[in-house]
Amino acid sequence: MGEVEGTVQGHRDGHGFLMPDDGQPDIYLSSQEMHAVMHGDRLRVRVVRYDKRNRPEGRVLEILDRRKKPIIGRLLLESGIWLVAPEDKRYGQDILIPKNAIANATAGQIVAVELTEPPSLYSQPVGRVTEVLGEIDDPGMEIEIAVRKYEVPHAFSADTLAQAAKLPDRVRAVDMKHRVDLRDVALVTIDGEDARDFDDAVYCAPHKQGRGKTAFAGWRLLVAIADVSHYVKPGEPLDRDAYERATSVYFPRRVIPMLPEKLSNGLCSLNPEQDRLSMVCDMLITEAGELHAYQFYPAVINSHARFTYTEVAAILGNTHGPEAHKRKALVPHLLHLHEVYRALLSQRAKRGAVDFETTETQIVCDDNGRIEKIVPRTRNEAHRLIEEAMLAANVCAADFIAGGKHASLYRVHEGPTPEKRGTLQAYLRALGIGMGISDDPTPGEYQAIAQATKDRPDAQQIHTMLLRSMQQAIYTPFNSGHFGLAYQAYTHFTSPIRRYPDLLVHRVIKALLGSKKYALDAHKMDAANPLPKRPGKPQAKTPSPATATTEAERWEIVGAHCSANERRADEASRDVEAWLKCRFMRDHLGEEFAGTVSAVTTFGLFVQLDALYVEGLVHITELGGEYFRFDEVRQELRGERTGIRYATGARVQVQVSRVDLDGRKIDFRLVREQDEHRLLRGAMRDKHGERQGDGNRSGRKQDKRADQRGDQQRARRDAAAAPAATVEPMPLPPPDPPTAVDALERIEQADRVLKSERRKSARATKTATTHPVQAAKRTARSSAKSVAAKGSGAPAAKTARRKRGA
Questions:
Q1: First to last CA, the chain
Q2: CA dihedral for 751, 752, 753, 756, sign (positive or negative)
Q3: E strand or H helix at 110, and its extent?
Q4: Considering the entire predicted model, what is its pTM?
Q5: Cα separation of 750 and 688, whole Å?
Q6: Which of 434, 565, 650, 665 is the most interior residue, by most CB within 10 Å?
Q7: Phi/psi zone of residue 140: left (φ > 0), alpha (ψ -120 to 50 degrees), beta?
Q8: pLDDT tens, 711-753?
């Protein structure tokens, strides 16, 4: 079998996977093979066998390169031996630390470790402490761990800081040359309450022009975006660090910016009443919400106000309220923005863009960085207004670049794969939803299903499945459209302060405006970070930075690098939020909460708590003493004996039973209450219904007799346990069980009686079919043994054995 090179990805259970460089399916590595390697090492592996599902399993032939990044973990002292338990459980092994290499750290502290001796088949890895981060409960420690665990660049180079220090504090007259002066236009920024960098400003006014058939009536919409490309030039230190990060990373109470603060919060931020350089997308929108014309140009602006989403929503809701009174001069402009937003929204509905109503949450922390509360983040009209304006500008940018036939990065979101499409079709059929998706689905089909099911009790479950069937959006130079937004071409233009692809798009637009061509500089090939491969998912091969020769290949590498760093930022943010939620739930151990099943897997149920917006796992072993089978089509677990079902969207009552801070896991225990009664009664009705359809009359009678006997035994037991003064004639069993536990007892009792009768029947049948001579011999032997036992007794038998032994 062939030899394959790639990067190993460990698993917390000890085994691992080799991610081949050529994008082929990953290769399973057993825990024994993983003993001499670590997560992130580069290996050469030979495929030695395939399992029943044709998945390859490999054997390590050679370790090509060891991972050299520091490993973050907690320093422990066990039986006089110092070791570090890595925070990233994919490493799979603790690291031994010599006593003279702990760098004055104490047991329990979080440290960074550099390996001095790699692991082997017979020994653990050895390392030395290079950095002491502090105690696990120090404020902000979870962020310090995450940025190192996911290798997020968090310190600017000295050259970058020196270059940023040399930049002017304000816009100079020389910077305004060859720019359109829009400082008298009432552009405003609308952002969240906690925003510090302001990428975009907007303005809208009614507009009419022409006569007759060429007449235009609608709005003129201006979207001004910070001109970061004026200060961040290709190949300079600022550009190198920005490209390495590719995006800003947002944590609760902290942001790791893509650009130094002097740019992100100063020169490039569209702060109110400050002159700022910008790139403007100037659009004409018809009354029907269609894009009539657009143009791009560099400008200088002066933001007239800094609004928040809450403030704008209040003004739009009441134009005579206190908020509107404070901003009286700008209220007409906000109303025009709302008018063009309504027009754009109607056009969005005509396109069939997918629009799911999902609940996003916001973590509110106290002064120590711990969770104070988790609240839903509500989207109001102001959020949607800005979103539609930004979408319009991004579409114009994509169209302008495509029309200029210049290489660039598009934001591509493709439709569902054939496998995911088939899974979704089966799921919709299983739920009895008359609507489905075609073999070549459109966004309109998805949106129609979302609208038709939005009032169902399982709407959240259906919308989640619709979302999971779609692919993840990526940056690529090959335009394939945006499935979710129903655009033929789409890119990112509106956030160059926090996204590097937007900065590249600005450079391309400027090059086209100047009839020039923008070429990627060579350092981007050296710093490229490839798109990470995920276990079990083959991935198309990305060109190697070392061998890329064409412009298209270079842009493809840059797109993969930006996509990879975007995912890295998301994973780091989720890791911090998971740690904070675990720390928060430690204070709620033993408490009960109502929740909704958010996902169903082969190993249990994920439940999101209604009050706290925290998700945890109810392991399958907590569901009861029976075997549960996972139905992938219906996305549910079903008990084989009782027929009880747990599906996504089901309402449950749970108790917080365990919190694993290191593993970022929260475990729940199911509390059986009234909802369980309904599930059990429905399951038993389904089970009896299935029995009635099998045509086995004798089986039905036997089950019925067993149920009656079980009910009678339970009634006699309850009557015997009651006080003497209250003993009454045996009542009939109630039509519905008072508790789920009683219902399960009835079922188990009926099963025991039924099995006992079947065993007796089997023995009788066996005896009846035995040969008469064999039956007589068996009876004689049995009688002889009983007579001998009565006559001699056990002590005599023991004495006889002793004599024979002597």
A1: 66
A2: positive
A3: strand 110-117
A4: 0.79
A5: 14
A6: 565
A7: left
A8: 545 444 444 444 333 333 334 344 444 444 455 566 566 666 6
Collapsing DSSP to helix, strand or coil, 242 comes out as: helix
User: What's the CA gap between 41 and 107, in Å, rounded?
Assistant: 28
Tokens encoding 377: 């983040």
> The tokens of 79 are what?
């039986």
Tens digits of residue pLDDT in 468-492: 888 899 999 999 999 999 999 999 9
CB atoms within 10 A of CB 217: 12
Distances (CA, A) of 735 to 136, 681, 691: 56, 10, 20
522-561 residue pLDDT tens: 767 666 555 444 444 444 556 666 667 788 889 999 999 9
> How long, in residues, is the chain?
806
Alpha helices in 44-181 (DSSP H): 141-149, 158-166
Which of 182, 191, 186, 183 has the alpha carbon at shortest distance from 331? 186
Reading the block at residue 122, the tokens are 């017979």
Tokens coding 308: 């928040």
Q: What is the DSSP letter of 457?
A: T
- Distance from C-alpha of 333 to C-alpha of 354, rounded to nearest angstrom: 29
Q: What angle do CA 94, 17, 466 make, to 5 degrees?
A: 115
SS3 labels along 564-575? HHHHHHHHHHHH
Relative to beta strand 3-10, strand 16-20 is antiparallel
Q: Do 52 and 24 meet the contact criterion of CB atoms below 8 Å apart? A: no
Interhelix angle 551-585/500-513, rounded to 10 degrees, is 150
Distances (CA, A) of 712 to 5, 430, 685, 699: 69, 39, 21, 20
Residues 233, 222: contact at Cβ < 8 Å?
A: no
How far, in Å, CA of 262 to CA of 422, rounded?
A: 51
Task: For residue 91, give the nearest of 65, 116, 118, 111 by alpha carbon.
Answer: 118
